[in-house]
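Input sequence (256 aa), recorded before submission:
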Amino acid sequence: MFIPPHCPNPECIHYFIPADNHWYRKISPYSTITFGSVWRFLCKACRKTFSTQTFSIDYFAKKKLNHRYIFNQINAGAGLRNIARDLKVSPKAITNRISRLTRNAIFLHQAILDELPYSEHFAADGFESFCVSQYFPDNYNILVGEDSQFVYHWDYVSLRRKGRRTEKQKEKRIELEKRYQAPKKGIEDSFRELSEFLEKKTHTRNTYVIFSTDEKKDYERALYKSLIYRNPNAEERGGTSNFFFQLRKEEQHKTF
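Predicted structure, token format:
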């Protein structure tokens, strides 16, 4: 039997996990083509109604799809149209399910982060891709555990297109930048935000922390401007003075 975990109303006293199961009562069900009979519930405190679908990943969906299959196919590098053909649905339906899976993954990742001790050393780097077209390159900075390889944090920033271009491509970039222009020092600001996230999570740690990355100038400038470098001792906050940076290049590294 389905038991609602909490009231879906954020302003209700039962929004967080209730102490018992007497905060709601079951009311009349309604029929759907996709899911059959769906039971409805009423919160006794705020009088909000909801159903079993409210807490389902298929909320408002018009057709049941195999989310595990979609997840495995995406991880295997399959295209949206290929997955859609296999499941006999439109590519938009697959995009919708990927969006649902993404939001659930972000929630679970945050729940894990809240419980982690941040006890290992860390490494960070970035990679570039593009969004929509090559006129809109972007950069993802990623912070991982040096031993576990667990992704602790990541950040996205848009970049200005660079490299060799024809005159026509230069003109097109000028026209596009009249509507949107990538932020200046985007990679630097993004990496500083990532490093300050790490500082906030480790400033109460009693053992030293090593933060490794490569010798990219944007990273180096970001670290010099970050809270980690400006407040290396953090004694007034009960923090640790043992914080080391390693800028690696191939097999060599320097510490500052």
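Checked by second reader. Helices lie at 67-75, 80-87, 91-113, 167-177, 186-202, 217-225, 227-230.
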